[in-house]
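LAB NOTEBOOK - FOLDING QUEUE
OPERATOR: T.R.
BATCH SIZE: 2
PURPOSE: Compare the predicted structure-token outputs for two unrelated chains run back to back under identical settings.
PRIORITY: normal
REVIEWER: second-year student, initials M.K.

ITEM 1
FIELD SEQUENCE / FIELD STRUCTURE:
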Amino acid sequence: GVNAIGYEIFWLFVLLIKFRIIITGSDAKIYREDFFKADFYQADVIYLFGTPKGLAKKLEQKIWNECKQGTRIISYACEFVDHEPIERNKPTEQDLSFYVYEIKKPA
């Protein structure tokens, strides 16, 4: 199975997500915490939603420094500059793009 853990800084979103976790019976966890203080070392998959461009570079460095080989990052609307996505998807012209990255570290 997947161990789903979420981080959100805005308290209202945290409450809404906790409510959805309860009504769906999910084992997911959500924490009201700054993404930059979270530990990503054990993550197999990271999903990012709408990261501001000004934070993208800092977040990219954090993820590539902390994550293990093979970790996948699925990013909605946030394209990293130093790493090439393994997949790019833009369903329609009106939609923002999804990007999929995979951590590959030198041997």
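ITEM 2
FIELD SEQUENCE / FIELD STRUCTURE:
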Amino acid sequence: PAAAPTAVGNQAVGLDLGASHGYTSMSFYLHVTAFTGTSVVFIIQTDDNSGFTPPVTYATFATVSGRTYERVRVASAPERYIRWRANSGTFSAVSFAVVASPNTTA
């Protein structure tokens, strides 16, 4: 992320996959390298508009309480835009990366 989240509700600017991206599913990889707090749950949101009004929860990672990594695969097509969001938990700092890997076959 451009800036590490420090509170629930922090989120990335949406990534535009393109109006006719053709992706049939996606995999997401979360890698947490440092964590201070009790927990945080990251989600991936998708929407047909860059304002994410209203966003749809597309994937949910397991609760994070320290350094970890996880892969989540979603078997349905995303809408045009995706972003990560620190959705719940109590923390003061987290360093992490989310990688999105689109699939064009089932």
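REVIEWER COMMENT (ITEM 2): Residues 83 and 97 are 12 Å apart (CA to CA).
FOLLOW-UP: none requested
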